[in-house]
Design brief:
- The strands form 2 sheets. The chain has a 5-stranded mixed sheet with strand order 3-2-1-4-5, with helices on both faces. A 5-stranded mixed sheet has the order 8-7-6-9-10, sandwiched between helices.
- 42% of the residues lie in helices and 18% in strands.
- It contains 10 helices and 10 strands.
- It has helices spanning 34-38, 45-66, 86-103, 112-118, 168-179, 185-193, 218-232, 239-268, 283-296, 312-324, and strands spanning 5-9, 14-21, 24-32, 76-82, 107-111, 136-141, 146-153, 156-162, 272-276, 299-302.
- It starts with a strand and ends in a 23-residue tail after the last helix.
- By secondary structure, it is an alpha/beta fold.
- It folds into 2 domains: 4-122 and 307-346, 2-Layer Sandwich (Nucleotidyltransferase, domain 5); 136-302, ATPase, nucleotide binding domain (Nucleotidyltransferase, domain 5, 2-Layer Sandwich).
- The structure holds 5'-O-[(R)-(carboxyoxy)(hydroxy)phosphoryl]adenosine (KG4) and zinc ion (ZN).
- 5'-O-[(R)-(carboxyoxy)(hydroxy)phosphoryl]adenosine is lined by residues 12, 142-144, 169, 172-173, 184-187, 190, 277-279, 281-282, 309-310, 341, 343.
- Zinc ion is lined by residues 112, 116, 142, 277-278, 310.
Length: 347
């Protein structure tokens, strides 16, 4: 058995700690801050950082206890050092640097989005090894990113295309706020969408007729807002209308993501398609991509639901692969690099 790797994730609003050995998830503790941020309608960076400070050491102790491991038995420490909210990232990075020095363990900083994608390789203790291997196509959909990558190995991702405006998760969260659906918007809109009629409202499905695989969600958000405002002018929306709006919005998001993913897979000649990131938990998206892959003879690898949202297991998993490939960071120098992920307040 490989020595286990500790993974630390504090880039946004989850204090998440995982332990992984040989791709097997031995522990996955997530202390969610959702209730703390809900009343603000979005993540407040300073609140997030302060709560990471409170939760991180108890989280590490609990995860090691879950995995029945003492610190001395660890093979290394991995931490998300980019992208994310700077104060939030710093808590994880400083903790990881300190523990790496105190426990004399190798340290590696990992990219949050790459970790989301590499989560497709993770498995439960009783599951057979995952038969996926690079190169493969990855669609990474989160609150801050919506991108397609060609993945050649751990930490080796070439960007093929991305959203030109909002990320898919951000579009969900903004749409939910406009509609008065409770925070966090994405999962709640997904639930309502399953009860609605996706054909009731016609909404734009991204940019067609382009040679590249760029995406856009701001036109969809505006069109949905105009429908909503026209309906609201006639009185409060009934439950069926809210569900139909959610279903129509979800169908438009899914149609666009399925379209560009199919195009990228065919352009790149890749047979394996990974779906990763918080929005990968979306029922409509999982079903839409599964159908497209079956039609095209592609193999579909959605990240298991347990590891779609931000978690420490994905960080430990990618960290394990990077450490095995000889990658190391200096515990005196590893720094937080915030650029990229910004979870804006919806609106
Ligand atoms: O990856 P993640 O947990 O954090 C970031 O790295 O951003 O993604 C969070 C995003 C949020 O925008 C949330 O609303 C969205 O993922 N999300 C969903 C679903 N579950 C989470 N969006 C649509 N349907 C879902 N089931
Ligand atoms: Zn994420």
């Amino acid at each position: 058995m490989n020595a286990a790797i500790l993974g630390i994730e504090t880039s946004c609003d989850e204090t998440a700690i995982g332990v992984v050995a040989g791709g097997v998830v031995l522990a996955n503790r997530v202390a969610s801050q959702v209730p703390l941020h809900a009343r603000f309608g979005g993540v407040v960076p300073e609140v997030a950082a302060r709560n990471h400070l409170l939760s991180i050491l108890p989280g590490i102790e609990a995860a090691l206890a879950d995995a029945h491991l003492a610190p001395a038995q660890l093979g290394g420490i991995a931490v998300t050092h980019q992208p994310g909210l700077v104060g939030a990232l710093l808590v994880g990075v400083q903790t990881a640097r300190t523990l790496a020095l105190c426990w004399n363990k190798p340290l590696v900083g990992v990219d949050h989005i790459q970790a989301h994608v590499w989560a497709a390789m993770l498995r439960q203790p009783d599951a057979p090894p995952v038969a996926l291997s690079p190169p493969f196509l990855a669609l990474a959909v989160s609150g801050g990113h919506t991108s397609l990558y060609r993945v050649a190995g751990p930490g080796q991702m070439t960007l093929l295309g991305r959203t030109l405006d909002d990320a898919a998760g951000e579009a969900y969260d903004k749409f939910a706020r406009l509609l008065g659906v409770a925070y966090p918007g994405g999962p709640n809109v997904d639930k309502l969408a399953q009860l609605g009629d996706p054909a009731r409202f016609k909404l734009p499905r991204g940019m067609r007729g382009r040679a590249d695989v760029a995406m856009s969600f701001s036109g969809l958000k505006t069109a949905a807002r105009l429908h909503m405002e026209a309906l609201q002018a006639q009185g409060p929306l009934d439950a069926q209308t809210v569900q139909d709006l959610c279903a129509s919005f979800q169908q438009a998001v899914v149609a666009q993501l399925v379209h560009v993913t199919q195009k990228a897979a065919l352009q790149q000649g890749l047979r394996d398609v990974v779906l990763a990131g918080g929005v990968a938990a979306n029922h409509g998206l999982r079903a839409g991509l599964a159908q497209m892959c079956a039609r095209q003879g592609l193999q579909f690898w959605p990240v298991p639901l347990a590891w779609c949202g931000d978690n420490g297991a994905m960080v430990a998993g990618l960290g394990e692969a990077l450490l095995a490939a000889g990658q190391r960071d200096d515990p005196h120098e590893l720094d937080a690099v915030p650029t990229g992920l910004v979870k804006r307040r919806a609106g």
